[in-house]
Amino acid sequence: MTDYKLNRADLIGERVLLRPPLLRDVEETALHLESRAVTRYMSMPHPYPFAQVKAHLRRARSRKWLAANMAFSVVHLQTGKVIGAVGVHFSAPANRSAELGCWLARPYWGEGYTTEAMTLVIEHLFRHRKLQRLSASIWSPNVRSIRLVERFGFVAEGRLRRAVFKNRRWMDVLQFGLLREEWLSIQKTRRSKPTGSAIPKKLLKL
Amino acid sequence: MKTEKSPQLETARLILRPYRMSDATDIARHLKDRAVTRYTYIPHPYMIGDFYQFMRRIRSPKARAHNIVFAIVDKSSGKAIGAVGVHGIDFKNRKTEIGYWLAKSYWGKGIVVEAVNRVVEYLFLERRLQRVFARVWHPNTKSARVLEKAGFTLEGRLRRDTFRNRRWMDVLLFGILIEEWRHKRRSGTKL
Question: Could you give the percent of chain A with pLDDT greater than 90?
Fold first, then answer.
């Protein structure tokens, strides 16, 4: 298990601050998660009961949870409002890898806030935590999230067919991965390489 | 939440029934073999205490609703020679993950395929799941073959996902959907 203290961090960007969630974030968080657009492609229920949001925030502050996870509230620097969240789930320490997840409040979409928040988190994990792999699971119709991770150079590695059911509909789950050296080479060129969403053929051979 | 009484399944050569405390010595003896556990999360060197700890974990009421571990029992000797584990049964999405191991002296006889086929049948028909998932660490071609024979499709490959035995390994993702399984059975592939 990782030291839980390590898993608390403040990351400061130009327009957003990422800090561990506070219990008083519950009002804003619950309000944003009322939007169906936000939770459509996440496993959270809709409607998401206030008590459950509160329980989640409380858990995200517990030592036990922090031993294998990190959580951030995304705070809009100009207004001080909570506008989203990022979660990091670490795999077994020897694997030096983690899975990322995030959401952003509907009124803030399309302005690059998620990109800024993810840049901060990805940098933190590769640079300061020395991870060697990041992964993301995205439900197949969630095109915005797919485009987001592809901009960071994530590679489509798999498609779990019909793995989730929500809103009376079956969806596939796409698996994405970004290796440390891929991230480093992108840092060098300072531009992310566009990659197609199709799973490269060579990954589907034994 | 559906909890059922411990199921017992049968095939031509095997009985599949839940792990018992009395399996401890047989199972610990087989799992001490590095060849068996190399590509699994089973600890090495394996101690009998690991078995008791595992039993405590899977028998807690919370775990029981979502996990079943079948011992593979050789009908001719009545002894446990391996296992098929069903982990994280998700009734909402009607899916689960499976894993397995077999004692080395029984390798190469199609025993795991026989056991996996029967467990998959049980999960689709009696537990009403619609998807079964399995993960294989990349160099473990024998295990990948088992899944292919059982009708699974390779769905992806997580690159350098796991570090074990001082090396990085890719993780292969396999899945089978209920209609694929039905089709395979109807088309007369031997189960």
Answer: 84
* A171 lies within 8 A of chain B by CB: no
Q: Which of A135, A165, A204 sits opposite B154 (nearest CB)?
A: A204
CB contact (8 A) between residue B153 and residue A161: yes
Nearest to A159 among B144, B156, B162 (CB): B156
Say what the pLDDT of residue A196 is.
54
The answer on pLDDT for B1 being more than 50 is no
Positive or negative torsion for Cα B58, A158, A183, A123: negative
Q: Does A82 touch chain B (CB under 8 A)?
A: no
Q: Tell whether A97 is within 8 A of chain B (Cβ).
A: yes
Looking at residues A133-138, what average pLDDT do you find?
98
Mean pLDDT of the region B141-154: 96
Please provide the DSSP assignment of B68-119 as one string: EEEEEEETTTTEEEEEEEEEEEETTTTEEEEEEEE-GGGTTSSHHHHHHHHH
Cβ-based contacts of B154 with chain A (< 8 Å): 204, 206
Instruction: Express each pLDDT in B69-110 by its tens digit.
Output: 999 999 999 999 999 999 999 999 999 999 999 999 999 999
Residue with tokens 């119709």: A141
User: What would the two tokens of residue B184 be?
Assistant: 């395979």
Q: How far is B133 from chain A (nearest CA, A)?
A: 8
Among A70-79, A171-180, B1-10, B163-172, the least confident range: B1-10
For the whole model, what pTM was predicted? 0.88
Shortest Cα distance, chain A CAs vs residue B14, angstroms: 29
CB-based contact (8 Å) between A195 and chain B? no
Q: If you average pLDDT over residues A163-192, what whole number do you get?
A: 90
- Please provide the DSSP assignment of chain A as one string: ---GGGG---EE-SSEEEE---GGGHHHHHHHTT-HHHHTTSSS-SS--HHHHHHHHHHTTSHHHHTTEEEEEEEETTT--EEEEEEEEE--GGG-EEEEEEEE-GGGTTSSHHHHHHHHHHHIIIIIS--SEEEEEEETT-HHHHHHHHHTT-EEEEEEEEEEEETTEEEEEEEEEEEHHHHHHHHHHTSPPP--SSPPGGGG--
In this prediction, the answer to ipTM > 0.90 reads no
